[in-house]
Design the sequence.
C-alpha cells in the first residue's frame, strides 16, 4: 500500500531481485522486428494538454503508424485543437463521440471500428512521452507470450504550493513502486500496469473485448485478466512517461480513493479466477493486502495506546521512521529532503485505503459486484485529476 515497516511483499520482491540472476539469467532484450503500433488517445476536456500529448506521440525514434484521438464529447476546444494538428501529422485521426461514453467504452469502440496494427498503445491525453518511448516499449514483445508492456509512470510537478507538497510526498511512493514492479515482472506477478501509457498486443485486446468496464481501475482489471489467461505482463523500466496528477488535496484524495476502491472492486470481481494467476495471487496480492491490513491501522491509531504500551508504540514509529529513511537513501538519497511530505502522503494514503475498503465492501455486501457497473466507465475518469 505505502512505504512502511510492515512489508512482507517488499521482502519477496528483494529476494526475487537477488535470486533472479541465479535462477534464470535474463537475456538482453533486442527487437526481433519493427512492429506496427497505433496509439489511441481518449480525451475529454483536454484542450490544455492535447497538443503536447499528440506532439510527443509523433516525435518518436520509432514512429507510430497512426494516432487516433477519440474525443468523448468534450465541452472545450479539444476537438478543434486536435483537428488543427492534422495538417502537420498526416497519420492523425480524430473521432468525436456524440455522447460522453468514457474511456473503456471508447477504446472498445476503436478496436471494433479501426484496422489496427500488431501493437496498440493506450495513452492518456495528459501524458507526455520521451522520444524513445515506443522504441523501448516494443522490445519486450519479442516474447510471444507477452500481452502487455508497462512503463514507469511519474507525475509532472505542479507549480502551486500544495501541488508541490503532493508531488514531493507521492513521487517517492512512485519510485518505490517502480522498484517493486521490476521484481513483480520477473515473477510475472505485476499487480497493475500504468493505465496512462501501456502497450498491448492488439490481438489480446480483441480477444478480451477491449478494456473491461464496471470497476474504477480498468488498468488493474485488465492486468489480472491477462495473467489469469496465462499471458505475461512485462515492466519496461527503460521507458518513462509523465502525466498530470491532481494538484490539490481534494483532487489527490479523490484520485487515491479511486485507485484503492478499484483494487477492492477487482478483488471482489475476479474472486476465484485469481487462482489461475497463482504467482500474482500468492507473491503479490496476498502479501500486499496482509501488509495493508496490518500497517494502515497500526500507523494511524497505535499512538492512542502510548499510555498503555509505550515501548511498543515508540518502537513501532521509530522503526517505521528508520525503515523509511533507509529505503529513501537506497532508492533516491536526494528524496530524504521530502521526508515530511512523504509522511503526510503516507497518512493520506493510509486513511484512503481504509476508507476505500469500508466503502467498497459495503457496496459489495449490499448490492453485489454489479453495483459498480457504469460508475467509472463514463466521465468520472476525467474528473479524477482536477
Sequence:
Amino acid at each position: 500500500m505505502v512505504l512502511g515497516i510492515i512489508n512482507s511483499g517488499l521482502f519477496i520482491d528483494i529476494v526475487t531481485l537477488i535470486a533472479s540472476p541465479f535462477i534464470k539469467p535474463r537475456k538482453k532484450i533486442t527487437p526481433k522486428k519493427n512492429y506496427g503500433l497505433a496509439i489511441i488517445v481518449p480525451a475529454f476536456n483536454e484542450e490544455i494538454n492535447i497538443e503536447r500529448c499528440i506532439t510527443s506521440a509523433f516525435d518518436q525514434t520509432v514512429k507510430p503508424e497512426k494516432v487516433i484521438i477519440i474525443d468523448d464529447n468534450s465541452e472545450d476546444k479539444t476537438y478543434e485543437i486536435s483537428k488543427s494538428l492534422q495538417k502537420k501529422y498526416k497519420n492523425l485521426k480524430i473521432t468525436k463521440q456524440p455522447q460522453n461514453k468514457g474511456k473503456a467504452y471508447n477504446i472498445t469502440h476503436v478496436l471494433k471500428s479501426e484496422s489496427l496494427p500488431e501493437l496498440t498503445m493506450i495513452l492518456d491525453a495528459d501524458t507526455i512521452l520521451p522520444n524513445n518511448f515506443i522504441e523501448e516499449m516494443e522490445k519486450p514483445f519479442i516474447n510471444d507470450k507477452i500481452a502487455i508492456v508497462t512503463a514507469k509512470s511519474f507525475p509532472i510537478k505542479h507549480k502551486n504550493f500544495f501541488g508541490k507538497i503532493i508531488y514531493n510526498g507521492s513521487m517517492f511512493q512512485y519510485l518505490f513502486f517502480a522498484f517493486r514492479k521490476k521484481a513483480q515482472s520477473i515473477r510475472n506477478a505485476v499487480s497493475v500496469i500504468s493505465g496512462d501509457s501501456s502497450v498491448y498486443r492488439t490481438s489480446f485486446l480483441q480477444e478480451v473485448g477491449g478494456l473491461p468496464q464496471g470497476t474504477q481501475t480498468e488498468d488493474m482489471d485488465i492486468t489480472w485478466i491477462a495473467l489469469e489467461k496465462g499471458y505475461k505482463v512485462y515492466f519496461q523500466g527503460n521507458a518513462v512517461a509523465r502525466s498530470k496528477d491532481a494538484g490539490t488535496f481534494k483532487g489527490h484524495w479523490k484520485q487515491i480513493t479511486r485507485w484503492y476502491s478499484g483494487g477492492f472492486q477487482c478483488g471482489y470481481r475476479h474472486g476465484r479466477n485469481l487462482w489461475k494467476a497463482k504467482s500474482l495471487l500468492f507473491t503479490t496480492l496476498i502479501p500486499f493486502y496482509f501488509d495493508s491490513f496490518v500497517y494502515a491501522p497500526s500507523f494511524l491509531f497505535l499512538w492512542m495506546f502510548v499510555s498503555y504500551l509505550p515501548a511498543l508504540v515508540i518502537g513501532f514509529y521509530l522503526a517505521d521512521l528508520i525503515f523509511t529513511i533507509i529505503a529513501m537513501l537506497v532508492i533516491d538519497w536526494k528524496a530524504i529532503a521530502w521526508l515530511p511530505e512523504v509522511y503526510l502522503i503516507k497518512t493520506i494514503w493510509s486513511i484512503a485505503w481504509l476508507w476505500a475498503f469500508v466503502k467498497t465492501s459495503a457496496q459489495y455486501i449490499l448490492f453485489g459486484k454489479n453495483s459498480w457497473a457504469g460508475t467509472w466507465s463514463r466521465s468520472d475518469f476525467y474528473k479524477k485529476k482536477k
